[in-house]
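User: Reviewer 2 asked us to show a designed sequence for the structure in our supplementary figure. I'm pasting the structure tokens here. Could you produce the per-position amino acids so we can include them in the response letter?
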């Protein structure tokens, strides 16, 4: 990805880079090379355009990680469940199927994605759910009211400086010992996965604004107890699945 001989030191979510030419250090440390590059106010319209084809991408590259997240959620009927960034409802459908008489709420920034989710959910009958436009930064949910909060492929769109605000909101709405299920595009750990970094650097919108992140350290910083962090790679696309408790 770089045209120089580089020594790269990974430090959390930043990379300290030293380029050596004849032994001389010539650039600064801790440079964020893969921070979010699509403005948050443009995410909704971007995903309105992506919505018609998103399901194909989701099945080909994300389904293993998403299915594992649902398994780890261990949903029982009667719970209060919130999915933030519900997308086209691929996970939400499974959530509501397992919690038909509980409270199921899904929010997303994209009207196009929500319309796809509503069409998917119309296949179910005698279930309790609501879908509406909403932001992860300000959740329209009471304090300590949610048993399980599910969030798939959203933090990879969020600037590093804004992630803490969202995690504080997640922590606010979760009940004591409430469950947080996260799936993110993560930093590639196996052969071929770096191709997505290459594409992102050329055109962030081609990647839907997503780049690889790691959330475990940040979760711990906010007092979450991380029980599971697993890595999945599907069609070379790298994902992390996290189970944490408030």
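Assistant: Here is a per-position design you can include in the supplement:
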């Amino acid at each position: 990805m770089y045209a120089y001989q580089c020594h790269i030191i990974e430090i959390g979510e930043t990379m300290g880079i030293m380029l050596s030419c004849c032994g001389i250090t010539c650039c600064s440390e801790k440079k964020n090379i893969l921070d979010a590059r699509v403005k948050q106010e443009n995410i909704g319209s971007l995903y309105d355009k992506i919505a018609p084809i998103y399901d194909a991408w989701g099945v080909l590259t994300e389904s293993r990680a998403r299915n594992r997240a649902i398994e780890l959620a261990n949903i029982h009927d009667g719970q209060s469940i919130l999915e933030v960034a519900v997308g086209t409802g691929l996970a939400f459908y499974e959530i509501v199927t397992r919690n038909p008489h509980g409270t199921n709420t899904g929010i997303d920034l994209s009207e196009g994605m929500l319309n796809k989710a509503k069409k998917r959910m119309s296949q179910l009958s005698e279930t309790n759910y609501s879908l509406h436009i909403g932001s992860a930064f300000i959740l329209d949910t009471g304090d300590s009211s949610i048993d399980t909060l599910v969030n798939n492929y959203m933090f990879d769109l969020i600037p590093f400086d804004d992630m803490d605000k969202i995690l504080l909101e997640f922590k606010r709405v979760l009940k004591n010992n409430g469950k947080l299920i996260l799936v993110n595009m993560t930093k590639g750990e196996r052969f071929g996965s770096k191709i997505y970094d290459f594409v992102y650097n050329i055109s962030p919108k081609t990647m839907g604004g997503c780049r690889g992140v790691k959330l475990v350290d940040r979760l711990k910083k906010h007092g979450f107890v991380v029980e599971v962090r697993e890595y999945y790679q599907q069609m070379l696309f790298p994902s992390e699945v996290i189970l944490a408790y408030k």
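For the response letter, you might also mention the following. The two ends are 38 Å apart (CA to CA). The first strand starts at residue 6 and ends at 11.
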